[in-house]
User: Fold these one by one.
Assistant:
Number 1:
Amino acid sequence: MKKYLIVALATLALSGCISTQQEQQEQQQPQTPPPTTAPITTVPPIGTPETSGQPPVETIPQPPKLQSIDWSATVQPLVAKMLKADGVQSGSVLLLDNVKNSTNGSLQTGKITDAMHTALASNNTFTVVPASQLASAKQAMGLSADDNLVSRSKAIALARQVNAQYVLYSDASGNVKSPTLDMQLMTVQTGEIVWSGSGAVQNQQ
């Protein structure tokens, strides 16, 4: 009986030592902290007026494109018809002066006159009075070089000064943005209108 008691006490003592060693090992081991989750930061979108602090960009409307007149395309058909007019004597001298502006605004008549000179440059019907001779005739009559022919009688008087047989009298009228060009071919001797024509202007494409 005493022998069993000694064995039991020894067993309890041994188990107590093992428990004490396990507790000491657990205390010596560092405790791992629980995992932490980083806070999620929401990044605002870049470039929006609400978050960037910049005022919204305003869209500037484009101004309407202004159409320019194609005087060459406007003049050539009229000149072609005039050169085929009945009763015109081939080889005659023709006076071509600045176009009269009768529109409701400012019109660069010099461009029309230049287009008419170009259209008549290679014709075989008329010999156009040179610009230098026309300027001298205007000076002799007390007119400025860029003076527009304001009347048919004035045009005929200038044509007689340069010994021309015909006068091409031209007038732009109506709305300055889309005028109508009128032409009249007159004889210097009698003032008779042997041909007349008109046409709306052509815009550049």
Number 2:
Amino acid sequence: MVAMPHPAAKPAPTRTDVARLAGVSTAVVSYVVNGGPKKVAPATEARVREAIAAIGYRPNAAARALKLGSSEMLGMIVPDTTNPFFVMLAHAVEVAAAERGYALLIANSDASVATERRHVESLASRRVDGVFLSSVLFEPDLRDLESADIPVVLLNHSLDSPGFASVGVDLRAGGRTAVAHLAEHGHRDIGLVMGTTTGGGLDGREAGWLEGIRAAGLVPGPVIRAPFRREEGYRLGLELAASADRPTALFASSDILAVGIVKAFHESGVRIPEDVAIVSFDGSPEAEYSWPGLTTLAQPISEMAAAAVESLVGGGPTTNRIFAPELVRRASCGC
């Protein structure tokens, strides 16, 4: 059997093809595709765009990046793309970046230091114009980005990092507010469900919880630790439901842990808030649509994202921007 030769692949449409079909110069096509630098008459622009659609022309992004000295691409690394907080944060950053003409490449470190490091190296080698990093470490390794002269903004970062811009929320204030609010409802035994991270270290929410306990003249309740996952909250909820000395109130350091606890309590016959009141942290949609609705310390996602993008590509200050969380009252605390 004689093998038949494969037909030659049809060459991709070029800017010259568009210009020929539209009856304009290649420079005019470039002005339309790149939005300048010269203006094109509306009728001419419409003709060029019709030609682009007709032949399926796609601009060469690599060539454009080389010409502009910019990839018009930003990178973002988060520890868990299934966590509603990081989903909201990534979306808000994507919207804010798009308003300035940048696309966003999102990578998931899966709360792994090694994976985070690999993503940092990959983004540095791709020569993105900047990186948003929500690190699993309190002091992440940024050598590759520094050596490539790629700016970085640390997200979900409440500590001052000299030389780097960072955006975060006042975790301590959130912890104090949660305890004070539960104490206002008459609770004297307030426990903490603290999410754990790979990097370790004292989380500001735990420090704030303890400060709130002391300010209210209370004895610290139990501190229970688990990774930031729904299933871990569910497991802890089952353990608490079966415990004879469970606290009457809980501050959960994340909505994602709290919704797991709520499910476990429902299954175990523990009433919320009659038996155990709950205040959580983040302000995700899951908190609103939980039953009962979760009282939560909401992070101002849109404002934080706008500040991060401004710092990275808008010439904003290289400082630590800290935003205040807002107490959103719902039924889980007794309101």
Number 3:
Amino acid sequence: MAKKTIDQVDVAGKTVLMRVDFNVPLDDDQSIGDDRRIRMAMPSIKSVIDRGGKLILMSHLGRPKGEGDDSKFSLAPTAKRLAELLGQPVAFASDTVGDDATAKAKALKDGDVLVLENLRFNPGEKKGDSSFAGKLAAMADVYCNDAFGTCHRSDASMVAVPESMAGKPRVVGHLVAKEIEYLSDTISNASRPFVAILGGAKVSDKINVINNLLGICDNVMIGGAMAYTFSLAKGGQVGNSLVEEDKVALAKELIAKGGDTLMLPIDSHCGDDFKSDCNKQVVADGEIPDGWQGLDIGPQTAKKFSEVLKKAKTIVWNGPMGVFEMPPFDEGTKAVAQAVADSDATSIIGGGDSAAAVDQLGFADQVSHVSTGGGASLAMLEGKAFAAVDLLDEA
């Protein structure tokens, strides 16, 4: 699945239209709470401007509905922060394909950078509109996709724009190249034992992932709240635990299909309320009393999972084992994170909560790869094809 990268294209004197993920958190004063997504795009940005290319950056931010005050979703703060990181001026266009964007794109000199206003301010972005895409495409000589978090979507900037640029170079940036290397290539050629760890609240969010991984992994471990739907499917008592009653039949099918490959918790750390200072007890799986809820895998499960992870050669992890934001119900996630960090395996952490957990617990530097896209990494683990990636130039 290897794709041609931005480094492999001659950009000197050319205009590069790069889709980035600048969907950063902004506070009420329009200050950026976490600029990590901007910093992560820097290698691809510098690859263009350091080699004398002209760069136009496009991204979405939040979910503007075109109602009320959309200015809180403006990308202007990201242009300002990027200028600080680069140590050079960064132009900002007040629209995407209007007069301001067109004029500022034409005025770019070699090594200059322009950030367009939020793509989602134009309804054509979410609709995948070819007319909107054509106007964006007309601004540039090269298309670069460095926004893995939206690679599973069919937004105009992801699919219709590169389609409109057929015949011109269409490549991936550093971030997307790395995601493909780990999430696609490593998984399709996994060293064994290959172990998947799946957590989070809902079985419904992970059905297709579980199904796909049961067919390719040696072990698939289940934790988090979705484990209680499996417990119910086995006829267990789950007390007040979060369960999906309408997914019990499906959980039974997955248990039957999974056999020894599917590893479910053998004990549960419970509380009588959803708070840190509640009364707590550890019970065997399927023995949660009324008035209590499972909030984490128990110590025996953590030990069992850790022993299997020690021997793994490839590990994929998506979703925490419990309520990791609320000690002491972070212990299961912590134990699993420690086992992953201590293993010799190629370890891939899916985006979203599992990435946040690994980061919060201080293990981010001890794993092989932390994905930048929650929904996109899940879709790739399902084995889905990505139109936004498939149409780009092969390496």
Number 4:
Amino acid sequence: MSSTLQAPRARRAALAFIFVTVLIDFLAFGLILPGLPHLVERLAGGSTATAAYWIAVFGTAFAAIQFICSPIQGALSDRFGRRPVILLSCLGLAVDFVFMALANSLPWLFIGRVVSGVFSASLTAANAYIADVTSPEERAKSYGIVGAAFGVGLVLGPVLGGQLSHIDSRLPFWFAAGLTMLNFCYGWFVLPESLPSERRSRKFDWSHANPIGSLVLLKRYPQVFGLAAVIFLVNLAQYVYPSVFVLFADYQYRWKEDAVGWVLGLVGVLSVLVNVLLIGPGVKRFGEHRTLLFGLGCGVLGFVIYGFADVGWVLVAALPFGTLLTVAGPAAQTLLTRQVDASEQGRVQGALTSLVSVAGIVGPATFAGSFGYFIGVDAPVHLPGAPFFFAAVFLGIGALIAWRYARPTVAVDATAAVVEPT
């Protein structure tokens, strides 16, 4: 692994594993999405109202646990290396999926979802790994490939999970367990360590391994703090899709499950294409700053069109504009990693994942609540597209922050040599 001929091959294999890890994580969770509500409903004695309550509790608890655990995983990866944290997360998820497949009551299933929130924070260490083994110029492309993994999981997971849940509501959990266990075995033999011992933190610091402490860490870097705010607003805006899209499409266009599935699948395909084909060349040609502002501007335009679209074909036609928002995340992530020392990449990535978890807590209430209010009889104006307008406002604020904080500066690690996996 240490020879000059083997090093590029080792780095490619490591990045391929990170891609597969993120893909399997999102694919596994996508697998259980169609069947989970039905399993909850069955465990709730057939009561749809009770099932809806538990699903809401599951979602909030999952995001809250990620908020707490992401900085812990990041700090652990800074102290002990990325490899053990990533592998432990893979193994923990595999065991937890088996636990949920065997759960025979709602409290036990709830415990399983909480444990999933603990181990699914592996994206923190995965992002830090990418920062370790790629040059600043190549990071946006690498983060874009990770984003493509999310898109592929978004497309394939629910489709495959829906088919498996028709056979048995617990089968998607078993299938997800098998995938994550295979990924653990693959990583055990393939994944090298990316953070040498001399670049690790000297000790595990609890002051930075908690959500509040990790956010305080961000304030040490004013530009990082601004970029983190942009990443938070981008993720918050994108929660409009899982929060209200199905209800909005049914209310506004009378689209049923099959039509919504095809449209969401199209969103996933477009997301993959943007991540794979556009982010790398775009950043190389225009730089992270302009690419970030371009993505935010396209996102604002797309969400405004969604909000005004009174016929379905207008929304579908606007999807390419909305999907171009995808380029903003990797561009902001790359700008941020340039400002942080290698020994703190894990903790900073943990803080970012915590912020995304906060978006997962705030977003559904914001968008679902505004949708319900503006289609209700007490609304001052009938406006079903209100959630999309709120999402556009969030992105507009993000664009203003990015204009101030995303300007190119001298990077902390811009001249540092890329660390080869060992």
